[in-house]
């Protein structure tokens, strides 16, 4: 039974309300338009998706994008954050662009514009073209140059209608899960030897910002995952472990982008190439900064009784930190702690750390996995996090918009179809869409904000 919540406080005029998705998780149509395989396609083909969900089918977004655009319009959403599939546009990772692939995104952008919805494409949401993955992926400096070329191709086709751009999504997760721990594509277990993948993604971001602007694009940011890091104990080992984890997951990406420096000179010394020159490119000024927030992390010294892990992945014993379970009265179906105030804490932390170097902020992802159509727990989650976001704005953080993750249920990477983050339910047999109770709540919340009530 749904419960009625009091109205949200009024957000600033012009605040952007949106929802998000990504290509690999939703598009399907893996063998159409001349699309090439991605590293994630190859990873899935190895049987690495736990429930055997068919990622090549996704949610059928490629065929049903008009239906999903209508769902966005029904929400009253101002914007839709989707991702462009790099291997659909440049199947070989380099070389000629695939006109049929570009045509799909042309149609999608036109459809969104028809509904008055701002298209906000992400250029890289983890689906590296397979030939580049096989040549080393983000361990290879050349991948950054190829990404900038691809960014130019997309901007030349879409910049006349796209007023908001995202270069890369969650470089920390790509580095840690894909290259350090081996649980995501491309499945490498390099631990600290994965650091070149971080640097090359950062370089790719900076080069792409330059390429986008050269092609006439404007209003450019990226989407970085952030979590407040809470120290698990009081020992020096606990403090060291928490600070190291905080540096790796939060500041190793934000600091180079916003300040032109790595947070620790020891990390800078481990990065490949002409690091000082690269940092001048990496710190190309942004128009805005995107924050993905899900939960705080409790971190201390390595310990046999460490209950937690990183994004569902157990950590090797040789790492100098251990993750504990975050205490919370409520947890999502993914087992993640529900801590709305962590969003306020994080945003204030960003403001305090970067001051006037922090551009306007958008929440580019925030959401939760819950099953069922009458998803009151998701409503409570969104309501709590939006109230926390409003408190951050009251505290002086310049937040311009909020994208919930996600519009529809989707293939949740290695978790497959088991974790449902959508406002809209997807039947994976028929691909039928059914709006959940949270869809109606978010629709009504947006309408109330726009009416001034």
From TrEMBL:
<feature type="binding site">
    <location>
        <position position="405"/>
    </location>
    <ligand>
        <name>substrate</name>
    </ligand>
</feature>
<feature type="binding site">
    <location>
        <begin position="412"/>
        <end position="413"/>
    </location>
    <ligand>
        <name>substrate</name>
    </ligand>
</feature>
<feature type="active site" description="Proton donor">
    <location>
        <position position="170"/>
    </location>
</feature>
<feature type="binding site">
    <location>
        <position position="294"/>
    </location>
    <ligand>
        <name>substrate</name>
    </ligand>
</feature>
<keyword id="KW-0624">Polysaccharide degradation</keyword>
<feature type="binding site">
    <location>
        <position position="169"/>
    </location>
    <ligand>
        <name>substrate</name>
    </ligand>
</feature>
<keyword id="KW-0326">Glycosidase</keyword>
<feature type="binding site">
    <location>
        <position position="125"/>
    </location>
    <ligand>
        <name>substrate</name>
    </ligand>
</feature>
<feature type="binding site">
    <location>
        <position position="25"/>
    </location>
    <ligand>
        <name>substrate</name>
    </ligand>
</feature>
<keyword id="KW-0378">Hydrolase</keyword>
<dbReference type="Pfam" id="PF00232">
    <property type="entry name" value="Glyco_hydro_1"/>
</dbReference>
<dbReference type="InterPro" id="IPR017736">
    <property type="entry name" value="Glyco_hydro_1_beta-glucosidase"/>
</dbReference>
<dbReference type="GO" id="GO:0005829">
    <property type="term" value="C:cytosol"/>
</dbReference>
<dbReference type="InterPro" id="IPR033132">
    <property type="entry name" value="GH_1_N_CS"/>
</dbReference>
<comment type="similarity">
    <text>Belongs to the glycosyl hydrolase 1 family.</text>
</comment>
<dbReference type="GO" id="GO:0030245">
    <property type="term" value="P:cellulose catabolic process"/>
</dbReference>
<keyword id="KW-0136">Cellulose degradation</keyword>
<keyword id="KW-0119">Carbohydrate metabolism</keyword>
<protein>
    <recommendedName>
        <fullName>Beta-glucosidase</fullName>
        <ecNumber>3.2.1.21</ecNumber>
    </recommendedName>
</protein>
<feature type="active site" description="Nucleophile">
    <location>
        <position position="365"/>
    </location>
</feature>
<dbReference type="GO" id="GO:0008422">
    <property type="term" value="F:beta-glucosidase activity"/>
</dbReference>
<dbReference type="InterPro" id="IPR017853">
    <property type="entry name" value="GH"/>
</dbReference>
<dbReference type="InterPro" id="IPR001360">
    <property type="entry name" value="Glyco_hydro_1"/>
</dbReference>
